[in-house]
């Protein structure tokens, strides 16, 4: 049976209950570059502090559990429940801030996987994966919400507009927050997607600029550049040039300055706090760190 979510609002803050249970925080109404949406990680936020820790997932993912952790700290504050619906992506979620605007991107893959979990009908009774696509399934014929070219229908389903915070936007966010908070399998799905995403980033960079023998700390920064999307077409020559210097990590951590200084400072600190990242290097032959 589908869970009933009930919204409440106090000033700019939205909360929900699930089937009349304990009230939980969803997000605060914010504005950004003319758009309006929700955000839930700020000073004084009442969001449950459900934090990603590499040590909790080393048994399954080994060294990769640490590889994704620096980006987790700067992207979603390390929190599984981080939400943002105010920017051009329309809906991002999780410690990796998976973004709904990219066709076949990390959010799409993550939601597809979530919809295969046994408790998916309780949260999204009108969605399913049909023919490998996220579809509305409440009619006689499944209606795809995403394809190889666009996620526009999926974005509208999750967040109808950037003009105001709609009830459906709050409910979609509440469903993912409650599900992730209450299900270890939902959290594991998020971790798996982040590891898969970062493995793809590293392999892509290896094909483009060559990472064979490059230390994992440098690979972390390169993967973060690709995950964040900073520096556009300029990123590849900058990455390649940095790898040729005697101080590649420091040079890589300057790509994106001055605009992204806060993020880069946080990334630098997170990598420095994990010296094990300098202990392994990428092996092209193995397709892994050795």
Placed side by side, the strands forming the largest sheet appear as 1-2-3-4
In which range does the helix fraction lie?
Answer: 40-55%
Unreliable segments of 5+ consecutive residues? none
- Which term fits the overall shape? globular
Range of strand content:
15-25%
The string of secondary-structure elements, in order, is EEEEHHHEEEHHEEEHHHHHHHEE
N- to C-terminal separation? 47 Å
Structural classification: alpha+beta
Number of helices: 12
Radius of gyration: 19 Å
**Main β-sheet, in a few words?**
4 strands, antiparallel
Query: How many E strands?
Result: 12
Report the average pLDDT across residues: 97
Count of all domains: 2
What's the gist of this structure?
The protein has 290 residues and is an alpha+beta fold.
Features of the shown structure:
three-stranded antiparallel sheet; 290 residues; alpha+beta; 40% helix; 2 domains; 12 helices; single chain; four-stranded antiparallel sheet
């Amino acid at each position: 049976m589908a869970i009933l979510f009930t919204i409440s609002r106090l000033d700019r803050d939205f909360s929900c209950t699930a089937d009349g249970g304990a009230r939980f925080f969803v997000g605060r109404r914010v504005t950004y570059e003319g758009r309006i949406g929700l955000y839930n990680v700020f000073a004084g936020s009442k969001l449950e502090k459900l934090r990603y820790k590499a040590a909790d997932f080393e048994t399954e993912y080994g060294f990769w559990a640490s590889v994704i952790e620096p980006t987790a700290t700067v992207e979603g504050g390390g929190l599984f429940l981080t939400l943002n619906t105010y920017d051009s992506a329309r809906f991002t979620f999780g410690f990796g801030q998976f973004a709904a605007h990219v066709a076949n991107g990390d959010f799409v893959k993550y939601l597809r996987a979530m919809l295969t979990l046994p408790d998916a009908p309780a949260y999204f009774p009108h969605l399913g994966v049909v023919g490998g696509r996220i579809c509305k399934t409440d009619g006689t014929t499944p209606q795809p919400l995403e394809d190889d070219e666009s996620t526009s229908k999926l974005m509208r389903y999750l967040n109808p507009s950037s003009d105001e915070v709609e009830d459906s936007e709050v409910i979609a966010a509440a469903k993912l927050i409650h599900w992730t908070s209450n299900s270890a399998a939902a959290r594991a799905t998020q971790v798996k997607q982040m590891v898969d995403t970062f493995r793809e980033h590293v392999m892509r960079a290896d094909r483009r600029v060559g990472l064979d023998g490059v230390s994992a700390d440098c690979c972390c920064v390169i993967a973060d550049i690709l995950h964040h999307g900073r520096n556009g077409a300029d990123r590849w020559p900058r990455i390649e040039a940095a790898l040729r210097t005697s101080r590649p990590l420091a040079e890589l951590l300057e790509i994106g300055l001055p605009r992204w200084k806060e993020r880069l400072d946080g990334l630098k600190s997170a990598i420095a706090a994990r010296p094990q990242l300098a202990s392994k290097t990428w092996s092209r032959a193995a397709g892994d760190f050795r």
